[in-house]
Predict the 3D structure of the following.
Amino acid sequence: MKKIIFLLLISVQLVAQNQNEYIIVPSKFDFSSKTNPFNLSELTKSFFESEGYKVYFESDVLPNDLANNRCMSLYVNLLDRSRLFNRSLIVQVKDCNGNVLHESIKGTSSIKDHKRAFNEALRLALTSLRGKTKFEAKESSDVNNNQAAKVAVVNNATASLQADKTNEKSISVQTLFAIPTQSGYKLVDDVPNVIFELTKSSSPEIFMAKKGSLQGLFVKKESNWFFEYNNGNQLVSEKVEVKF
């Protein structure tokens, strides 16, 4: 009997993992009657593909397994929280029953051009979800621990997802992500806090950079990026992990 229960729980766990394989993105959102408004649908699709999902638009022809069981997929929704002088978006990830499993921070931009503003707001919102939407079972050599983990999946999947979000934060916090601006980029962490502000120069491998009260250059050397600034009479060069 114990063996049967154990195998059943493993099956439930595998189903939960398979349900995270697909994501469906709307080609239209409630706040706009246009298809792919401001390129937001394409940006959203691209982000979740980079997270390892197989992403489809609602209007796409779906693979047979997904077409026959829509609960194998997660679903994305964008909430427009814009005000008069800024554009703001929140990204929600839902299950097939409409339950919100993940919600991003509110990405906000004050750029006057609406398309650029919505793009920046969406990138900020999506950045806060990076690495946090996948459910991954924790492996252990202790069978009892494995059984307990699987029971937790059966009884409270949402709690397991939130636990993964906490665990993964410490992994991705060292990498910064580039958000395009009119003059260059903002480099943000996954909160997201703005760590660097970069201004373009005549070379695509050199930016004028500001980090808090520090000002210097953001320079690409071979395949790595460095923030270089003067500290008194000493030149300081800090290596920075960044994804453009």
Remarks:
- The chain has a mean pLDDT of 76.
- The first strand starts at residue 22 and ends at 25.
- The first helix runs from residue 2 to 19.
- The two ends are 53 Å apart (CA to CA).
